[in-house]
Every structure is written in structure tokens, then in C-alpha cells.
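The instructor's notes for this session suggest beginning with a concrete chain rather than abstract definitions. Hand out the sequence below and ask the class to guess, before any prediction is shown, which regions might be ordered.
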Amino acid sequence: MRTERLTQPSTLADMPGTLLRNRFLPLALAVFALAAPLVGKASPETGSVRVLIGFRPGPSVAARAAQWRGLRSIHLPTGLACLDLDSHPAATLSRTLAAWRKQPGVDFVELDSEVHALGVPNDPGYLGRQYGHQLVGAETGWELWQPQGTAILAVLDSGADLNHPDLRPSLLTDDGGRVIGFNAIQQTQLPQDDHGHGTHVSGIALAAANNGLGIAGLASHHPNQPSDAVGVRLMPVKVLNSRAGGRQSDVANGITWAADHGADVINMSLGGDEFSETVARAVDYAYRKGVVVIAAAGNSGASSPVYPAGYLHVTAVAATDPQDRLADYSNWGAGIDVCAPGSSIFSTGIGGGFLLQSGTSMAAPMVSAAAAMLRSQRLDLDPDTTAQLIVDQTDAVTLRPGRSLPAGVGRMNLAAALQAVGASGTGLSSVTVGTGRVVAGTTTRGRVRLSLPASGSGVLVSMESEEPELISVPPSVFVANGLRTADFDVQTQDAGAGQVVRVTATLFGVTREAPIHLSRPLPRVTSLEASPPILVGGDPFRLEIHLDRLAPPGGMTLFLTGLGDRVTLPETATIAEGTDSASVTVTTRAVRDPTPIDVTAASSEGGMTSRVTLVPRLQSVEVTPSVIVGPQRVKSLVRLASPAGLRGDLVSFITSDRKVLTTPSRVKIRPGERTGEFIANVKRVKTRTDVVLTALLDGARVEARLQISPVP
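After discussion, reveal the predicted structure:
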């Protein structure tokens, strides 16, 4: 990729509004261990610091950028650029960043922090079986898979062994046989793996099958493939170095390059604790271009995924072990979307070998392979539908004590996902009759739903009633081209009151059934209250349901729905026989901004909707007083909107000028408490200086603005 250097003035002192007046001294970006906070750090002795700058949209962006010495564009969404500082005194870095944030048109400024691979090597050289394929139903899935085109799976990692005999057949190449990929670290070089992590991840998804060698990648075995022109191909994108570490800018660069070069699915078996606006925007860019983005959830056993798995529009993958249990190292909690086998996974290694590795890094490519298979079978799938097909078709996972997953989240089932798409590209998703309870002797409406819109001349769904003398349905229901649903009439008889009768629908050999409870008129929902109505995202709330009279014999089932992806609630709530109320616990996910959520409880007699508002857990950071004379040490507070969980909460801090104000990089708020104390060290200043202290938690941020004055 060509790197363009923008027009610039002769010195940084020419940039309007900055505090720069001297030539720069060397700086360095610190490399941290896996458990350390991933933030940029300066050293006066060696190296350089990279700063990422986001500009607000506008016609003057290029003109403004041209005033910045050393600024160069990188392959990121419009308005993003980077600045390498290789000769700047560390003492002025924070002031420089603070000054840049105030420049007209600047949206954000952040240091280019590190990410790292999320695999844990284990037992190299073991020539064993691929148990994960059996757990996810690979053999049945391969029989169901009928690719209609080519889907490109971009693996953003340490690259791939381009000469590995079990990977070469799956590599995406041009007409001249040259590999189509990208090296974000050394852009003139091929994405050759010099660590091994990326090769192992790539093999899980796309090691060649039926070649008498090694293993079979999940998306490589295709007995129904009509030619080599269809299926899934591997696009290697190197964003991690020989130590399996890399910068956020390289990750963002790789994401946008892959999106611009035709990737249908992006796999990222990497991550870090730091939120990066640059990478978040790159993910949004890829999502808008129709790319399914999948990432490993992390291996620290934490109650939320690392980034990029924690970003919006990213499917976060946790790991399971051979016993179908949530792996002990895997991150868990409300941010997880799906699980996949990740422990003791046998796959390709650099140099043509094979080895075992464990980690959420190994789980993510299984989900990515499934997404690529779905995209190759149905070329018009959008990212949300593709991910939802996988998330909806899962098997239960055994949880470990003290750990949880959102309701409905389980281990992926490839066969079920492909069955939901259907052998012809369209499958039968469900058949429903009202809410499942029908007043005997009445006529109601039923509905068949396809997993995807019908194509061609439409499809005919066969219908059958278990007891035609009690419930009658038409022999078939036609779903027209371009539609996903079709309705039909259901006639019930008085004699069926108190019984359960099943109606079945069949399409392409796939059968779905709807049990229908025949009853007398049901009570109505008269009150639906969410308590509390305003709560912190990630905390549960209670949904109180009240009827206008007692539930009939056998009880009453209400159907629950919630709008938005920040809330997870049971599909149904049962009002016990002889009672008129029920209480349901609803789980939520963390939010960055206040988010209203509507939840509904309904029966065949109608329903009601209640609204809750989710707010960020992080409430405020306080340094009191806000006008301070340096030097001094000031006891300060960070506050949460609700008590910290069982493991406590870890709040990160960034100060705009560490020369003037220093704080701990992170402060832990103990379980059950809402505040954490820390010491802010205010240095001596010669002139009045404004400083911004930013606290971050779960993607949310709050600020404290301080005015530091010199000693009178």
C-alpha cells in the first residue's frame, strides 16, 4: 500500500494553536505483558510514539491536515491519519496531545496501543483427532453445504505460512498465482507468518481437505462443491509481528484493507484491554461494506470480552473444551455472542507441521469458517443475518461455577446453521400459530417463516395437523419470491378445549412444529412494570407482569420480546394456575451511552410494553477542587452508577498532560462498592494550565477538567 505524506509547514511551531517550540527528542512505545493495560508510553531514550488522529468530516479536513508536520495518511476510513513522533521530548508529549485535541476539526487523538494474539500453545506435535469438528456437526454440515459462489475469509493475525502444503490450496490468489493478502507491518512484504499463531488459526478454518495430509479445515471440506470456482478462500492479513504483538493502527489498517479488497468475513484472534476509537471506526467501516467481523473474546477468565470483540458489530466468541464446558481460561459474561471449541485444537504450524493450541483464538476461526460457508451458499446474506444464523443455532454449554452467559448463548452448531439456510439457499425457520395458545372454536392465523427470502418462483411449504378433527390447516402454504413469511388460517373446534395439538410444516426435508394449546378465553395483561426503570447496562432488572384475573388450569404462557441487542430475556413467562402475576429477571449488556429498551409481554388476548433505560456503569471522575495550585497531592474519586460486581470493576485513566497531572493507570473498585479512591499528583507549573483527566470502563468515558495554577 502506498503511504502518502501530506503537505506540511517547515516546523511544528508553524501549526496554529499548538504549544510546540522546540525540536523533538526520541520517544518509545512501551510493550506490555498480556495482563498489563495496553497504553502508549513515552521514554526519552529510544524509539518513537505513534499518535492516531481522527478528523471530523468536512471540506477543510485536507487543508487542516496539511498544517501538521509529520502527518501521513494510512489505509483507514476517511478522516483518520497517524503521526509518528520520533524526536520529541517526553515532557511535552501530553501537552502536545492536549493541544491537538483542541484543534478545529479534530474528533479524537489517541496513542497507538498494542494488541496481542489470544492463543495459548499446548502439547506441540500431537497427531490427534479434531474433536471440535464432531461437536459442531461438521460432517452433517458438509453434506448440507452447497456453495453457490466464493466467500473470502480474511484472517488478521501474524500472517500465514504461505508455503504450508495444507494451506496453499485454500489461499486466495490472482490469475498469476500470486497470493492476495496484505502485510500491515511491512507493506512491501508478503503476509508470511514469522510467529505461527496466524498459521494455526488459518488451518482451523481452511486447511485443505481430502489431500491425504494433516487436517481438514472446517470450511474446506465441500463434497457438494461443483468446481474450484466456489467455496471459501483464505486472505492472509498480517497485523501481528514475530512476537504476536501489534499496534491498533495496524489492526485498523488490516480491517479496512480486507474490506476494500473483497473480504466477506474477517477473523481476529487477537485483542487488548484498551478501547481504540480508530479500530472501532474501522470495524464500522467494514460492517457498512457488508463484512461479517468475528473476534476472540479473550483468555483471562474475565467477565467481559477484550477489544475488538467488545466493539459494536463484532461477534464475540468464547471457547469451550472437549467436554462442551465453557473453558476455564475463556472470558465470559454479557458480552459473549457465541461459543466454539477452543481447547486442544489440532491445526497447522509454520514450517509445514501441525500442533495443538488452546484459546479463544482457536474458537473464533470456527465461527468465522461457518460464517464464510453461509456467505458462499447465500451470496446476498448481510452481516447481521449471517451472524444471527450462527448465534441462533447453538447447543447448550455447561457453565463453570460463578460464570454465566446471556440467555440462549451456546456452542455453535454448523449443521443446524446450514440447515436453517437450507440446501437450496432458503430453509424453513419456524411455524407459529398465534402465540401458541388459541381459544377453542375460533379461527386464528398461523405463519411460516423462512430463514432467508424465497428465491426464483417461490417455495411451497407442506402443512399437516396432528389431529385434523380438532385443528384444520391448509395442505400447503406458498411463500412468494423475495418474501420470508406467509400466513395461513387455522380453524379450531370447541371439543379441543384443554388439549395440545401440534401443527407441522415441512420444506426440503426440514420439519418445524408448533404446539397449539386449545383453551377457553385467557386473562389479559393489565400491567407490565420494569423495576428499576433506569439501570446500569450489565445489571439485571425485574419485569413484573399482572393479569386482569387468575390464570386458568394449567397456567398461562406469555411471550416476551425486547427491542435492541443490549437486553436478553426469556422467550416466555408462565403465570401459574390460580395466580395473576409473575416476575421475570432480565439481563442487560453494558452501554456506552444512555439507551432506551422496550420490552413486551403478550398473549393471544393482547399485550403491554414497558420501557427501561440503560445507562453507562461509569458515572463520574472527580478531582476536588477543580482549580488547583501545584504542586500537591489530591485525593480523588471515581464513581460508578451501581455497585461493582463479584470481581470488582477496573477503571482506566488517561490524562491529557502527564507532565502536569499524573494518576494511576487503573483503579480497581472493590466488589459491592460504588467508588474508588486514587491520588492525583499535581506538579508545579509556571503558567496556568488546563488538563483533562479521562476515566474509561466498558467503552464508556467520563472526564474531569482541571485548572492548574502556579504558586502565587
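Then share the key points. The two ends are 55 Å apart (CA to CA). The CA atoms of residues 550 and 580 lie 5 Å apart.
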